[in-house]
Amino acid sequence: MAFKERVFSGVQPTGNLHLGNYLGAITKFVALQESHECIYCVVDMHAITVWQDPAELTRNTREVTAAFLASGIDPKKQIIFNQSQVAEHAELAWVFNCVARLGWLNRMTQFKEKAGKDRENASVGLYAYPNLMAADILVYRATHVPVGEDQKQHLELARDIAQKFNNDFSESIKAHGFGDAFFPQPEPLIQGPATRVMSLRDGTKKMSKSDASDNSRINLTDDADAIAQKIRKAKTDPHPLPNDVKELDQRPEADNLVGIYAALKETTKAEVLLEFGGAQFSTFKNALVDLAVAKLGPIGAEMKKLVGDPAYIDSILADGSVRAKAIASETMSAVKDIVGFVRR
Ligand code: TYM
Fold it and tell me: Tens of pLDDT along 59-102?
């Protein structure tokens, strides 16, 4: 069955939105709105799988929304909302808790990383997190999901859940007039030179919101001075930049900075090396500072302005939630019929 193309993605409001989130996800969100119907979600219910201070959660939810808007997502043409305002996410997640297998979740590397050594003390929500993520996507029967490389395994799980639901309920799906498959197989969109932006302090570690060192990442709210300082301090190796992209494989810090430059300039690593191959890092870093400040400076400034008007942000989220709910409730009614729940 052919499904209508629809894009869905989400970002957690857990603070310190950074260059990795921007290049790995948000720039893709912006580009896709030209060609697709898009739904972008601030996933506050995912955030509470680890402890969140309530006031901070509210602030961070508004900040991620501001980042979406400041980056150029059009809230009238597309849908921007926060997850907890559309209860159908949680409702479908429960059904998926009963479709997904323990063995599937036990393979999730992100749970292992986040739970760390003290697994017994991790929340049940953290363990079931990928089922909620599958519900986020499939409650809109979304077909395309732009994400960074770190979400690939979760997307594979969402595909497995969609397939098992379609198989387990195939008779009922047919009987209710939905053809051979009710859910699409959502496709991850993981493309370009910055699908995995690394820490500026260690090219083998992912840039992350939770890294103790603020110098490891460029936050979207950093001002020009902070951006310049962090790039100038970024770890490098002693050699000039190579001419050949293949040589970046052995040089994680160089690879990362070249990838960041390429993504900000909307070009390829090979093009960047055509310009900077043989150059010293000091020269390249100056160019990177100029580019990063030119691209990120206006976004940070606009974000600061927007978060100063929480009533406006909340009105965007309220409007988006109503429109998201209209789609999600239709899916949920169908799911209830397919599963056999009696409903009004
Ligand atoms: P989150 O909030 O950790 O990250 C948001 C997006 O940013 C990408 N990202 C990166 N990309 C490149 N380099 C990095 N260093 C980097 N760090 C983060 C992430 O891949 C993601 O695309 N589970 C998701 C949120 C989520 C979701 C969904 C996504 C919930 N439901 C449904 C898609 C569809 C997460 O924790 O993203």
Answer: 999 999 999 999 999 999 999 999 999 999 999 999 999 999 99
Distance CA 235, CA 228 (A): 14
Rounded (10°) CA dihedral 195, 196, 198, 204:
-140
Other residues' Cβ atoms within 10 Å of the Cβ of residue 163: 14
- 193 C-beta closer than 6 A to ligand 1: no
- pLDDT tens for 172-230 read 999 999 999 999 999 999 999 999 999 999 999 999 999 999 999 999 999 999 999 99
Question: According to the model, what pLDDT value does residue 2 have?
Answer: 82
**Is the Cα torsion angle 7, 83, 297, 256 positive or negative in sign?**
negative
User: How far apart, in whole angstroms, are the C-alpha atoms of residue 109 and residue 153?
Assistant: 8
Give the Cα separation of 162 and 144 in Å (integer).
Answer: 14
Q: Whose C-alpha lies nearest to ligand 1, atom 18?
A: 21
Would the CB of 38 count as within 6 Å of ligand 1? no
Residue 28 is a catalytic residue: no
- 206 in active site: yes
Cross-sheet strand order for the sheet of 7-11: 79-82, 38-42, 7-11, 144-146, 187-189
Assess contact for 196 and 148: CB atoms under 8 A: yes
Q: Which of 262, 207, 283 is nearest to 215 (CA)?
A: 207
CA of 149 to the centre of ligand 1 (A): 8
Residue 1 has pLDDT above 70, yes or no: no
How many angstroms is it from 278 CA to the middle of ligand 1? 34
Residue-range domains of the chain with CATH: 7-195+310-339 (3.40.50.620), 214-305 (1.10.240.10)
Atom of ligand 1 nearest to the CA of 132: 31
Please state the length of the chain. 344
Q: Which of 138, 147, 189 to mutate to test the pocket of ligand 1 (most atoms within 8 A of CB)?
A: 147
The token duo for 95 is 């059904």
Cβ(121)–Cβ(100) under 8 Å? no
Q: What is the pTM of this model?
A: 0.97
Work out whether strand 7-11 and strand 79-82 pair parallel, antiparallel, or are unpaired: unpaired
